[in-house]
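LAB NOTEBOOK - FOLDING QUEUE
OPERATOR: T.R.
BATCH SIZE: 2
PURPOSE: Compare the predicted structure-token outputs for two unrelated chains run back to back under identical settings.
PRIORITY: normal
REVIEWER: second-year student, initials M.K.

ITEM 1
FIELD SEQUENCE / FIELD STRUCTURE:
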Amino acid sequence: MIYEVRTYDIKPRSLAEVEKRFGETYEKRKKYSELAAFWHTEIGPLNQILHVWHYKDLEERARIRAAAVKDKAWPPAIGEFIVKQQSDIFIPLAISPPLKAGKMGPYFEMRTYTYAPGELPTMIKNWENAIDVRLKFGPVCAIWYSELGALSKFVHIWPYQSLDQRAEIRKKSHDTGMWPSSVKAIKEGGRAEVLLAQENKILMPSAFSPLQ
């Protein structure tokens, strides 16, 4: 399983029209494959939309995209609003649940960490060892690392019912003294992974997003 995250920067005050056109066109596109999620940014870099697609592999991705374009079911007519586009292919960790349709949010925090070259095995080990600590307080949507696109990226996405709940859960998990994963690793004789940068954004789902 792979996930493609397509991040588009759009012009200010265009979100409503972009989501309208995207949603209308998606009704034709989804017969080829369904979205995993569609979000827009609420906090962080503004005027962004993110659409997430899941595929068995890159071959299936290419086949489905080609069929949708050939049948004129895709892409949506939003080019006039797009400022920048980026596509990244992510691979889920073994501890990452599949993105499934349903209600988990409506607030989603997407945290993207850039790790130093060669640090992915340590990152994965630390997360696999510590994830149960964090899951006591709330579920995770995704734990991925990048394979194509922006490299050396580690992404984790967390759902919350409110921003207050986010603050409460983060405090509880930190108060255990065993989260984040690097803290637990050090206490147990390991080491923290080397990170070069961290960023986060709060996302909200569109009306047609399978994941709400």
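ITEM 2
FIELD SEQUENCE / FIELD STRUCTURE:
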Amino acid sequence: MTQRTRIKLCGLSRPEDIQAAVQAGADAIGLVFYDKSPRYLTAAQAGLLLAGLPPYITAVGLFVNASPDAVQDVLRQAPLGALQFHGDESAAQCAAIAALTRRPYTCALRVKPATTAADLLECDRVHRQASPYFSGLLLDTFVDAYGGSGKVFDWSIVPAELAPRVVLSGGLNVHNVTDAVRLVRPHAVDVSSGIEREKGVKDAGKMQDFVRAVQAADAAQAGHPGR
């Protein structure tokens, strides 16, 4: 039986965006706590946004090189279910914050042109050994800035044995996500700029179209099992 691809809609910053993501069928929503991002939220803003979040939708906090105290400060005001480390955090640093906060986490690996399948497997191994809270790698495209890249990397480097436990990100949108899911078969996909009307402002129609495109890929896979 083909597993359904989970969907995270990231960079939400308005109540109407949260509502649209829920209505579209997102499994998780992402809130950004990196103050250089146009999608940045304070802990207080995030707390208000999450107050009406329905059950069984995971709120994920995106952090970039944040201190343990900074993450804890956010969690005191915003009930995040999971953490996403998107900077230069080591496996040991991620593990320490996860243990302190008792939250599962994903770690972004920013894929460079020279990155190999072996590099991905090694990074996954190191994090799994470091912490029981590690959920998986989030694969994004390397750019000089932190946060989402809005660019696609070479999906063919993702090894088949790793794909079922990664989150695929980096330049995804309604036009390419069906192919991405079909070719990589990740556990989940993560999108931010690809569902925006303008930088930092989400588009409800694009959210719905993105979710439908992922569902179309899953339906196609169900009819043609095997990578």
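REVIEWER COMMENT (ITEM 2): The beta strands are 6-10, 28-32, 58-63, 82-85, 105-111, 134-141, 167-168, 188-191, 196-198, 201-202.
FOLLOW-UP: none requested
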